[in-house]
Amino acid sequence: MPIDERPLAIFLMGPTASGKTALACALAEQFPLDIVSVDSALVYRGLDIGAAKPDAATLGKFPHRLIDLRDPAEPYSAAEFRVDAEREMAAIAATGRVPLLVGGTGLYFRALQKGLSELPDADPALRARLNAEGESIGWAALHDRLAKLDPLAAERIRPTDPQRIQRALEVIALTGRPLSEQQTGGRRRFPYRVLKLALIPADRTTLHARIGERLDAMLAAGLVEEVRNLRARRDLRAELPAMRAVGYRQAWQHLEGEFGLAELRNRAVFATRQLAKRQLTWLRGELDARALDPMIPGHAATASAALAAFLAPAD
Length: 315
Known about the structure:
By secondary structure, the chain is of the alpha/beta class. The chain has helices at about 20-30, 55-60, 80-95, 105-115, 125-135, 140-150, 150-155, 160-175, 180, 205-220, 225-230, 250-255, 260-285, 300-310, and strands at about 10-15, 35-40, 65, 100-105, 195-200, 290.
């Protein structure tokens, strides 16, 4: 059987608040790894507290690539991530080290390893028309329309996600074909041999408790003030992808006077738990991943042993 001579890469995946950063840093201390962030919030400058961005001391010791790439006024796509990640991975591999990709954004991991569909470019006029319609009759009504045109896409897209509802309807209008039918991905052999480590807690109760504790810590650290400063910028709007990130959306609504601080916490905790649920659903579909329970004390040692075996030279 021929030896697979592709360079190596590690995917460390997990839901929010599962301890990915701590484990990544522990592994990077033991092995010749360089960390690449796979997180749709960490790409934005100024999203620090609410995005749980590693602090300066951590980044000084364990630099993370692909954070602070964009101003929050500038959207960032999975296609752009794929290009950026491939560039960084190649640069790391060229030094003889191994890229360690860490995060919970499943779409980014999927785009990187499996590719993206060739979908039409945005049509500004059509997009404006759909936006106006969504504001007029409500995005739930447009989601109902999508369910009739493309049930599979509607099942994956929440009625409260106007950006994705709009894009799905836009693609259908421009191509005459359901979005789900076109999302087959650009199939190719991924140019790296990958070890996938997935942090999947057997009991969600502890993860939910961590989510609440982390949100409390974010509020104490100044999350609301961080969002207040972002809102003071005239070029940022609530519907931008950066401002729709979990925690930021609820803090923005709080500052708009929609509800008080206690309700902000309740809504942010609920939204974060829902995010974790979706992340876990995606992770369970990664059948080639090595599952680790982050709530068990020995999980770091298990990850280290798996990594040592993966990095060992072939006989």
